[in-house]
Amino acid sequence: MIYSYSRLKRYADCPASFQYKYLYEMSELPTEPLVLGKTVHTAIQLYLTGTELENAVEQAILQEGELPVDRDEVLRLVEHPMVRKIQGGQVEQQFLIPLDREGVIQLQGYIDWYEQLPGGAVKLIDWKSNRQKYAPTDNHQLGLYSWYLSQVTGAAEVDAELVFLRYPYADSRQAYTYTSVEMEEARRWAMALATEIEDKVAELNLLDGGEDEHLFPAIPGKHCQTCSHASLCIKSVQIKPVKIDDEVDAQRVAAEVIRLESATSEMKEHLKAWAKEHGAIAVGDSSFDFVPSVSWNIDAEKLYELCSELHDRGLDVFQYLTLTAANLKKMGVTDAQLQLYGKQKTTKTFRLVKAKEAC
Ligand code: SF4
Hints:
This protein has a domain at 2-30 and 80-196. It contains 15 helices and eight strands. It has helices at 5-13, 15-23, 32-48, 53-63, 71-78, 81-85, 141-153, 169-172, 180-206, 230-233, 247-278, 300-312, 325-330, 335-339, 355-358; strands spanning 2-4, 90-98, 106-116, 122-128, 158-164, 173-178, 281-283, 286-288. The strands form two sheets. Strands 1, 2, 3, 4, 5 and 6 form a six-stranded mixed β-sheet that branches. Strands 7-8 form a two-stranded antiparallel ribbon. Strand 7 (281-283) and strand 8 form a beta hairpin. The longest helix has 32 residues, at 247-278. The protein starts with a strand and ends with a helix. The structure holds iron/sulfur cluster. Residues 14, 16-17, 218-220, 223-224, 227, 229-230, 233, 259, 262 line the site of iron/sulfur cluster.
């Protein structure tokens, strides 16, 4: 088997998910962030190889069109100053290299951009359309890409950078210089996982078509949110009884909740597809059906007109209008200013919080 960083990461997160996708070759539904990311990468590749910016975006949208994406959002990400700054270098390099001396285990990958400077130094960039930033050392992706570049260029160090395209220039860059020791560590990480997978696949083959859940166990966690196999995987749910005595129990139940929610939303998607074709699905005296939700889109000028008319009729429109925190932020209204007009109210909801949100 040929390995890539994303294959290995999937195995490290959840061996069952790896098994569903790469051993059973089960199809996966495209997700909006995945399609957006692929479209942005293709558009950047086209732009950096000479296609005019807007044309690059149009072509990428046509090429990667598994799901509709917002053209303006793609354009905004692609015209990031870091992308515009690139001159020369190698764009979207595909590589395949053996991880071991014998050449049995192969690693493949795509390097978004890299350049070897005249003195021998090597720089590499990986574009990210993620909302949440992280450091290169949080995982082994750039360590592995750097290791590959060190092998083909002879560089003892590689300057690697993640560029988060949703952030302004100064905040978008997460850079790290990999030493030969760190690059070798990344290779060892990949080699150890790939060898483990090879051994398990050999064992699985000996079972002659049989299944062994212990070889590729399901490990529920945050990654279940994006898993396409949750509804199949829930057969191994382990929450009997739902009782929380300590932190380990609490973490186990929390991970199972994410897996179950993911399975539920997958099942709902299947129901939706069925209902689209055949109509409402009855469950006792209730049913799953498409229920219209109505809202009005009124531009600012017309909204002003409507409010004036209501005011003229003697209604106090401000009793009914609310300003959301997001819109106040967009208008640059600070907490200090708001304190002059009202009292802050804080309510708490119990939900899964991203690490950055929790700070
Ligand atoms: S739902 Fe979660 S535990 Fe199950 S296969 Fe997917 S990622 Fe693994």
